[in-house]
Every structure is written in C-alpha cells, then in structure tokens.
Amino acid sequence: MKKITIILFILILTLSACAGNSVSLAGEWTLISYGNASNPTLALPDAETSLTFGTDGQFGGNVGCNSLGAGYQVSGNQVTFEGVISTLMFCEETMYQESAVLKILSKKTLNIELNGNQLTLTSQDGSSVIVLEKK
To answer: What is the CATH number of the domain that holds 125?
Structure first.
C-alpha cells in the first residue's frame, strides 16, 4: 500500500508539472516577414522593427514607424492579444508593413511555433503569418 501511494504521488506531481506548459515569448524580437502564409512579404530592410514581450503579460514595439502595444496571454501553443493599440503617425515608406502586421495581431488569437530563435505567429485559419527572430 505504501509503495502504491508513493507511485501515485510521483505520478500526480509529474502530470501537474506538464499541465501548465506554455511557450514563453518573453524577450525582444525583430520582424523577418509577414502576410500571406503561402508567400510572406519580407520586412523592409531599412526599417528598425522590434516587438518586446514582457513577462508581465504586456507587449509593445514598432514595426516601422508607429509604436504599438497590448496585453497578451499565452496558453499552450496559442497567444491571445487584448486590444492592440498603435500611434497614428503617417509614414509612407512603412504604412503597408505596419497595417498588415497590425491586422494579423488584431485577429486576437494566433498559433505559436517556436523553432530555435525564430517565432512564427499564424492566424487560426492558417492564412496569415508573422515571422520574428529573437534579438
């Protein structure tokens, strides 16, 4: 009986440790490409881009000209964004890139794929992506 109790205790600890595993997005990321998943557009080479995910559930950054930010929550291999906001400066060179990335982030819940230092965020229907690289 004592042996069974010990085995059950170890099994419960193991299962509870696995239950809450979520991908960590914490850190600073550079935009590599975005848009149509089957043919993504490369990020503009001369535009400084950066998205920073904090451990406090907030993210912010810049994908060309305007600052953006929101709350986020990771659950398993999905991230949900809470009301992405952005400044509204007119920047002709980067406006397409910014609006496309904001549109994807505004889809609320995206699938996460983390491969080494590359992060891919994909829309639920698989049609659009944002590819980032860890700085």
So the answer is: 2.40.128.270
Does residue 76 belong to any structural domain of this protein? yes
* SS3 of residue 56 by DSSP: coil
Task: Indicate whether 7 belongs to any domain.
Answer: no
Q: How many domains does the chain fold into?
A: 1
| Tokens describing residue 59 | 């993210």
131, 40 in Cβ contact below 8 A? yes
Write out pLDDT tens, residues 81-93.
998 999 999 999 9
pLDDT tens, residue by residue, 100-115: 999 999 988 999 999 9
87 found inside a domain: yes
Q: Give exposure, 109-135, as e/b (b: 16+ Cβ within 10 Å).
A: ebebeeeeeebbbbbeeeebbbbbeee
Angle at 105 between CA 40 and CA 91, to 5 degrees: 75
The beta strands (E) that lie in the chain are given as 27-36, 41-42, 50-53, 58-62, 67-75, 78-86, 109-115, 118-123, 128-134
Q: Establish if 96 belongs to a structural domain.
A: yes
